[in-house]
Every structure is written in structure tokens, then in C-alpha cells.
């Protein structure tokens, strides 16, 4: 019996990891705001270093244009993403707004998470807020997002030496909250869902999810976002639905 439970747990974890890594980015419900669009200062708080323009020298541009065929595919893909970041933001201040749109709670109206990416020296910050009825319901702040690709492009033991363009590309492409359809994860075994709840509350949460059309939230630092979160109205907060 114990071996059977262990096998199911491993299978569920593998399935989640495959679904998570293979989910096409085009399916993410994101709407991109105009670069350098300034959000409401009252909502987003801190003032960015708007006097700092993103200047870039030709040597750095050439560095990311140069793609060695022997490089891993993910490095080639990331270098192409860096080039897009450079083309969009060079000679501009770092202050961009991107919207994550989906259905978080049980009403029929779409919900929007406002993500502001900006610079407060020396850090690149991502401030995310879900505002409902003019109140901040949920918020998160990430500083200098990091991924394994950092080590390939800027090999150093000091993360503070990471290229600004690498960090900014990670922020734009891999660090924003995602809202995904719960149907994409129907194969998760309920025995391993809602691990932080008591058995009684877990039964209620499973029933709530079954009758809900809400999306699930993925958030956090790129290398730490291995959980799915559900907005659970009885507790008025996000709760962990599943983590491998």
C-alpha cells in the first residue's frame, strides 16, 4: 500500500512538472501595457529611478546577438529574448506595466493583476497587485529575479554582478504572476491537494474547487514557483492547491 501511494505521488509530481514546463506562453492571459507607462503612484508606492535611462553599448549588443550553434537551445532562446528587451527599452527609463488578466474569484467579471517593473538602484523590482473594488486584495514584490540561465550568461558567484539586461529579461518573461485554467491540472490526485489544510477543511476546499470556474495562480521567484494557488473565498486568501 505504501509503495502504491509513493508511486502515485511521484507520478503526480512528474505530471505537474511536465504540464508546468510545457505550457505554451501564448496561453497566458496577459495584456501588455505600453512600455514606460506610469501606474498610479498611490497604488504602486515606490518611485522609480526615472532619471536613469537604459543606455547600452555596441559591445553588449553584439554579445547577445552572437549565438554559438553549440550553445544549449535555452541559451539561444534567452539571447533572442534579451535582444527583444534591448530593442524595446534601450534609451528609456525602466518603468513598465504589464497586466495579468483572468478569473481569480467566483464572480463573472475578469480580474486584473497589475505588475510594475521598475528600477530602484541597484535592484530591479516587480510589484504585483490585485485590486478589487479599489482595495488591494493581494500583493507581492520580487527583487532582482534570478534563473539558472544567469550562470550560463554571467558566470560568477556574486549575483550582484548579473547583467542588468539579463535580470530585466527574466523579469519581463519569467517573473510575472500567471493565471492558468484549472482544467489543465485535472489529473492531479486529490489525495495530494491542499496539503496545508486540515482534513475537514480540505474536503470543503476540494468541493469549492470542483464547483468553481476560477483560475489558479502561479507566482514568486522563477526558480521557486512550483506551486498552484487557489483563491479560497471562505478564508479570503490564496491557499496552496498543489506542489510537487
Describe this structure in a few short sentences.
By secondary structure, this protein is α+β, with helices and mostly antiparallel strands. The chain has helices spanning 2-22, 41-44, 58-65, 73-89, 149-153, 164-174, 199-210; strands spanning 30-32, 95-102, 111-120, 123-132, 135-143, 178-181, 215-218, 228-232, 237-242. The chain has seven helices and nine strands; from the N terminus they run H-E-H-H-H-E-E-E-E-H-H-E-H-E-E-E.
- The low-confidence parts are 1-44
| DSSP helical segment count | 7
Structural class by secondary-structure content: alpha+beta
Strand line-up of the largest beta sheet: 1-2-3-4-5
What does this molecule look like?
The protein is an alpha+beta fold. It has one domain (2-54, 92-143, 177-242). The protein is 32% helix and 24% strand. It contains 7 helices and 9 strands, in the order H-E-H-H-H-E-E-E-E-H-H-E-H-E-E-E. The strands form 3 sheets. A 5-stranded antiparallel sheet has the order 1-2-3-4-5, covered by helices on one side. Helix 4 crosses helix 6. The protein is elongated, with a radius of gyration of 20 Å. The model is unreliable at 1-44 (pLDDT under 50).
Amino acid at each position: 500500500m505504501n509503495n502504491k501511494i509513493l508511486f502515485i505521488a511521484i507520478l503526480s509530481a512528474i505530471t505537474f512538472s511536465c504540464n508546468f514546463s510545457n505550457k505554451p506562453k501564448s496561453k497566458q492571459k496577459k495584456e501588455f501595457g505600453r512600455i514606460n507607462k506610469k501606474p498610479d503612484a498611490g497604488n504602486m508606492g515606490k518611485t522609480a529611478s526615472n532619471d536613469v535611462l537604459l543606455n547600452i553599448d555596441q559591445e553588449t549588443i553584439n554579445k547577445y546577438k552572437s549565438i554559438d550553434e553549440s550553445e544549449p537551445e535555452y541559451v539561444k532562446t534567452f539571447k533572442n529574448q534579451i535582444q527583444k528587451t534591448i530593442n524595446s527599452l534601450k534609451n528609456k527609463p525602466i518603468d513598465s506595466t504589464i497586466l495579468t488578466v483572468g478569473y481569480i474569484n467566483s464572480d463573472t467579471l475578469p480580474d486584473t493583476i497589475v505588475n510594475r517593473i521598475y528600477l530602484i538602484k541597484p535592484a530591479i523590482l516587480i510589484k504585483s497587485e490585485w485590486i478589487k473594488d479599489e482595495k488591494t486584495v493581494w500583493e507581492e514584490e520580487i527583487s532582482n529575479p534570478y534563473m539558472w540561465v544567469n550562470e550560463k550568461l554571467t558566470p560568477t558567484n556574486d549575483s550582484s554582478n548579473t547583467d542588468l539586461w539579463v535580470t530585466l529579461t527574466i523579469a519581463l518573461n519569467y517573473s510575472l504572476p500567471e493565471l492558468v485554467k484549472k482544467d489543465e491540472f485535472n489529473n492531479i490526485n486529490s489525495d495530494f491537494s491542499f496539503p496545508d489544510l486540515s482534513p475537514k477543511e480540505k474536503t470543503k476546499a476540494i468541493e469549492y474547487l470542483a464547483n468553481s470556474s476560477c483560475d489558479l495562480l502561479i507566482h514568486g521567484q522563477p526558480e521557486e514557483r512550483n506551486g498552484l494557488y487557489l483563491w479560497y473565498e471562505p478564508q479570503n486568501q490564496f491557499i496552496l492547491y498543489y506542489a510537487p
